[in-house]
Fold this protein.
Amino acid sequence: MRHNTPMNPGDRNAKISDLITRSATHMHPSIPKWVGPAYIAMALILLPWIFYLHFTLPLQQVAQHYRMAWVGFDVLEFGQLIRTGLYALVPRWRFRVRPHAAACAALLITDAWFDCTTTPTNQLASSIAMAVLVELPLAGICWWLALRGPHQHQHQQAEAPVHLHLHPEVNSRVEDTTPAPPYGGHND
């Protein structure tokens, strides 16, 4: 049995805030607390390694598998681009576009960087042109897609109906995450 006794404004505001926080957490799952410190630690560990490489690597190096490295990288790039395109074409897969578009952007920027920094001087102009006219603009489009594509939770919302009802304790609409009863039955 529910009691419809009025709440004082402080309790009511606290209850509403709690419901909003729980709803926001459900809609946007939080990132674990360890992620921030772990990534900062990895970046800080990388700094001395960067300086070590700068002072110890030779200025030139003959790579025995140079062709395989570039062909393999471009196959990886192709796979990400085709996967992103296919996910964008199928409505139920569109929520997968964001992470794959972000991966495409990272691969394209990496491609442009290594094209320009490993190319012989007599081919540098064509590498820079390719980076400026193709790879970097396409990477920008990929980042744009990664930032504005549908979220995973939007996909889940589209597939699972959400039932709204009046919550008696706060006299406002709140989301009911319980599944709908089968065959139109009641949960009472």
User: Anything to note?
Assistant: The helical segments are 9-27, 35-56, 66-89, 97-118, 124-148, 152-159. Residues 66-148 form one domain. The chain has six helices and two strands.
